[in-house]
Amino acid sequence: MGFYRKNIGSLHQAVRVVVGIAVAVGALVYLAGTAAWLVALGGAGFALTGLVGYCPMCAMAGIGKGGVS
Questions:
Q1: Sign of the CA dihedral 54, 59, 65, 69?
Q2: 66's torsion region: left (phi>0), alpha (psi -120 to 50) or beta?
Q3: How many Å from the N-terminal Cα to the C-terminal Cα in the chain?
Q4: Dihedral of the CA atoms 7, 8, 10, 14 (nearest 10)?
Q5: What whole-number distance in Å separates Cα of residue 67 and Cα of residue 69?
Q6: Selection from 44, 48, 5, 4 nearest residue 21 by Cα
Q7: Which residues make beta-bridge pairs with 68?
């Protein structure tokens, strides 16, 4: 089980991964400088939460029930 419990469902995970990667790539293509890297880092973090199935902000807000959104 690991150190965490999934709090987002599989569809939510897939959407997070796709959107996170799209934001990261879009930032690096269309933005420049520090802003590009900061937005890309945010997109990568969003995609990472989708990959592992756990979102700390959703957990704090009480969203998700054991992997079912």
A1: negative
A2: left
A3: 19
A4: -140
A5: 6
A6: 44
A7: 65
H helices present in the chain, as ranges: 10-30, 33-52, 56-61
- Structure tokens that stand for 21 in this block: 């990667």
Can you give the pTM of this predicted structure?
0.80
Burial 23-41 (b: 16+ CB within 10 A, else e): bbeebeeeeeeeebeebbe
4-47 residue pLDDT tens? 678 888 898 999 999 999 999 999 999 999 999 999 999 999 99
